[in-house]
Write a sequence for this structure.
């Protein structure tokens, strides 16, 4: 019972200063009961249409991503950059993403598989599961049994053929063609295209014409025939590597009959190629242009072009320029380019820094797995990541990554179903799986059912 003086004092104070806030007595309770007082909050997701990647770490809600669904609304471009050191889950993410995308009827995927063990590429197991034979490019295979892609395939426009020939030569030489060498190549190519009508023109025809130019080509420019021959000598020597050198057997004949460009998954197995040799960027250039002219079509299909060891593309100015054009062109025809790189410094500090910056700018989605602190700071600076994201990148455990989807930054745990596990964790990838398996046990039990339902469903991809 309050004393009369206190009651009188409170009444006078309320009259003069307004009503005084009610005094509440403290309540003793448990944290379990009190958690409802402070409602949880989380960043907005990317919608409920697309493929399931996993769950957002802080809120626990499902994380769904699809560049084709987001393009034009939340994404200015459908291209995707995946970064991170080995052993953190990049390979598992790529494979499950492709498997889940292929559940849609209007999806088609091409993979440039640059890694592998036991004589086969890393994607060989998935290709077998889907009944697909990888296109294995191997210079050591006998010439009569190897797979060939012809840079002079008639399905490629003559302009595209000449651009591809120039790129091959420039990559191999390490510098651009001068005007004289470019002229010699142009007239040799024009002659071969015009006079080879009974079969596909091949690189041997170009080499032969460079060594023995026609007099009429010299007369057209009022120069001596010996000068034209001298201008084309270096070009002929470079192309000879693809005809009779260490790269023979892959591009020195007509395109192999039977390559199914309508298959849902097309795997180019480059695992037999030395990743540190000049052969790899040459291969990337040839495959990229060949696909541009033979695979990408205005048929309303959504296509994914996934490139492992993508620094071979971004680190070469000439190859990067080709792919930069491919990305711009493919965006109108439903192409999502996925580049997988270990370190951003591999490309931004390389010889193609300008071209690399342009390609990185087109990648509106960036997924960053664990990196060392110095590399994380550099990555954050180049990609414009928020400070909190940069600080946690070195602390990320395998299977967890920072996702930046056009400024929507979240930390995501990748989830893998039991059906996918044997296909994803190949012998080489076991190092990526070993750390994540214990953490995934309870998540698989609780959430794999949702993913399985989606994968076994029809064209719908929504999560309740």
């Amino acid at each position: 019972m309050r004393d009369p003086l206190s009651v009188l004092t409170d009444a006078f104070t309320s009259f003069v200063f307004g009503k005084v806030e009610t005094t509440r007595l403290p309540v003793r309770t448990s944290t379990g009961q009190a958690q409802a007082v402070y409602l949880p909050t989380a960043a907005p997701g990317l919608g409920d249409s697309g493929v399931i990647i996993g769950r957002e770490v802080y809120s626990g809600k499902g994380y769904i991503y699809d560049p084709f669904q987001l393009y034009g609304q939340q994404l200015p471009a459908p291209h995707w950059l995946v970064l991170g050191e080995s052993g953190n889950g990049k390979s598992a993410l790529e494979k499950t993403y492709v498997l889940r995308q292929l559940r849609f009827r209007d999806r088609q995927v091409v993979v440039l598989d640059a890694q592998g063990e036991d004589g086969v590429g890393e994607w060989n197991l998935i290709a077998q599961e889907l009944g697909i034979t990888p296109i294995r490019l191997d210079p050591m295979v006998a010439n009569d049994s190897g797979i060939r892609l012809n840079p002079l395939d008639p399905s490629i426009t003559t302009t595209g053929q000449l651009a591809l020939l120039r790129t091959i030569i420039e990559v191999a030489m390490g510098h651009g063609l001068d005007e004289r060498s470019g002229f010699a190549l142009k007239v040799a190519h024009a002659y071969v295209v015009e006079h080879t009508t009974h079969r596909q023109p091949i690189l041997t025809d170009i080499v032969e014409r460079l060594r023995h130019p026609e007099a009429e080509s010299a007369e057209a420019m009022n120069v001596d025939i010996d000068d034209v021959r001298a201008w084309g000598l270096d070009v002929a020597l470079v192309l000879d590597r693809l005809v009779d050198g260490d790269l023979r057997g892959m591009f020195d004949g007509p395109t192999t009959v039977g390559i199914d460009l309508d298959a849902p998954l097309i795997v180019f197995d480059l695992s037999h190629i030395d990743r540190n040799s000049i052969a790899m960027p040459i291969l990337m250039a040839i495959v990229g242009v060949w696909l541009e002219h033979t695979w990408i079509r205005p048929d309303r299909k959504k296509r994914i072009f996934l490139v492992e060891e993508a620094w071979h593309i971004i680190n070469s100015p000439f190859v990067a320029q080709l792919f930069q054009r491919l990305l711009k062109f493919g965006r109108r025809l439903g192409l999502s380019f996925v580049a997988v790189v270990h370190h951003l410094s591999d490309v931004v500090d390389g010889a193609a820094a300008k071209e690399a910056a342009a390609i990185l700018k087109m990648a509106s989605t960036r997924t960053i797995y664990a990196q060392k602190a110095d590399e994380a700071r550099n990555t954050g600076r180049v990609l414009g990541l928020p400070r909190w994201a940069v600080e946690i990148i070195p602390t990320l455990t395998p299977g967890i990554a920072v996702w930046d989807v056009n400024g929507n930054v979240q930390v995501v745990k990748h989830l893998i179903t039991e059906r996918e596990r044997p296909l994803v964790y190949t012998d080489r990838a076991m190092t990526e799986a070993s750390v994540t398996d214990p953490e995934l046990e309870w998540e698989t039990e609780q959430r794999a059912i949702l993913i399985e339902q989606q994968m076994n469903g029809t064209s719908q991809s929504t999560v309740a």
Q: What stands out?
A: The chain has two domains: 51-140+262-455, 158-244. The first helix runs from residue 4 to 17. The mean pLDDT is 81. DSSP finds 20 helices and 13 strands in the chain.
